[in-house]
Design goal:
There is one protein chain. By secondary structure, the chain is mainly α. It has one domain. Helices cover about 80% and strands about 0% of the residues. α2 runs antiparallel to α3. It starts with a helix and ends with a helix.
Length: about 80
């Protein structure tokens, strides 16, 4: 079992939460601690995490199978 398999078993709502929650936490930390180097890094990392989740979502196992099925329907 590879670490990526954990995300394949998540529901769509859980996938959204795993993409958005780090950003919400980073914003909350920024509100509490103010604008400093740590909070800027946290927000930058959480934005990259969100982008990676959004860009990699179509490549989940279910989506790959849907793309393969679509190819068979096209002439």
């Amino acid at each position: 079992m590879s670490p990526g398999d954990i995300f394949n078993d998540l529901t769509p709502h859980a996938r959204v939460v795993t993409a958005v929650l780090p950003f919400v936490i980073a914003l909350s930390v920024r509100l509490v601690l103010g604008n400093n180097l740590l909070t800027r890094w946290l927000i930058s990392l959480s934005v990259m995490w969100f982008a990676a989740n959004i860009l990699m979502a179509p490549y989940s196992a279910g989506m790959r199978q849907d793309i393969r099925n679509l190819r068979t329907l096209l002439p």
